[in-house]
Amino acid sequence: MRIARWTRDGADTSDGFVIGDRVVPFPDGLTVSDVLARGLGEAHAHFAAVQEADGAALADVRLLAPLVPASIRDFVAFEEHVEGVSASVDGKSEVVPEWYQAPTFYFTNPHTVLGPDEVLRPPVSARLDFELEVAAVVGGPGGANLTADDAAGVIFGYTIMNDWSARDLQSREMKVRLGPAKGKDFGTSLGPWIVTADELAPYLDDDGFLAVRAEVLVNDARIGHDLVSNMGWPFPELIAYASRNSRVVPGDVLGSGTTGNGGCLAELWGRRGELTPPPLTDGDTVRMVVEGIGELVGPVGAAVAVPELPAARVRSRARSRQERVAQ
């Protein structure tokens, strides 16, 4: 099953299934959030109820991001990506020993999610980049302190994720041992739909990794390609780790992290010691294709200038900490 959200002629948003070359709304006015919360089994029942309905032609609607995420966690699960991009962002090509100990992630902004073909309006950046990822979407009850087996049961489906990145902003922020923040939170593209976990089960290898091919093209020139099964941990282990002393809930999105072998420009910059291929700019188009899921296109628009903020006020460490006496 393919789960999607769409609009037609700028009218209200509809939520439902993509069935062949048509879109069909969920029964009873249900939303994607409702269906995720009720789990994959009930989604099959809803599909059976509407699969013969006429719906509307897929070509006549504009697809939106396939869900409004409850949260977005983005992992860094590809060793090859870490080794290559660290030289570009941090100035030293390495995979630190701590990477192997646990699947590290950061939270990004669920309020700047973009859908298929939606134009990115990036910050002013000299090193604008993409990141080719697959994301798992949580459904059903979610849970806390899950085992990997339990976590596999809360994967409702998968979608393509482009974690847009301003590498110059990211590099500055991470020198303070925090972030990425403004280097990332301006846009994350998801889509074109959610493919349910049962549809992709045939691609799982014997160790539980999702063995699908993924590639990324800029202006129709292929930049990178990889197998998603080259992750250091399979998706259930990522979700289990995210749930430690915490919770995962329906609508949570968990990105795989950037694939290796050119899954982003920064990896190639780090390996080559130069900005080749060049950073993204206004007018470029990034197209990501993942086997079993589909294609996600992201056009790049003009950068958005923002008001300047002053630098930190330098303080004397020896200054008095006494409260100021009122005059």
Give a description of the structure.
The protein has helices at residues 32-38, 40-50, 79-89, 148-152, 167-174, 197-200, 235-242, 265-272; strands at residues 2-7, 13-19, 22-25, 56-57, 62-63, 71-75, 105-108, 113-114, 128-129, 132-138, 155-163, 165-166, 188-196, 213-218, 221-227, 252-255, 285-290, 294-299. The protein is an alpha+beta fold. The strands form three sheets. Strands 1, 2, 3, 4, 5, 6, 7, 8, 10, 11, 13 and 16 form a twelve-stranded mixed beta sheet that branches. A four-stranded antiparallel beta sheet has the order 15-14-17-18, with no helix packed on it. The protein has a two-stranded antiparallel sheet with strand order 9-12. The longest helix is centred in the first third of the chain and has 11 residues, at 40-50. The chain is globular, with a radius of gyration of 21 Å.
Keywords:
327 residues; twelve-stranded mixed beta sheet; 19% helix
Low-confidence stretches: none
Helix/sheet category: alpha+beta
What percent of residues are in strands?
25-35%
The pLDDT mean sits at: 95
Share in helix? 10-25%
What is the count of β-strands? Answer: 18
Query: How would you characterize the largest beta sheet?
Result: 12 strands, mixed
| Helical segment count | 8
Order of helices and strands: EEEHHEEEHEEEEHEEHEHEEHEHEE
User: What is the distance, rounded to the nearest whole angstrom, between the alpha carbons of the first and last residues?
Assistant: 72 Å
Shape: globular
Radius of gyration: 21 Å
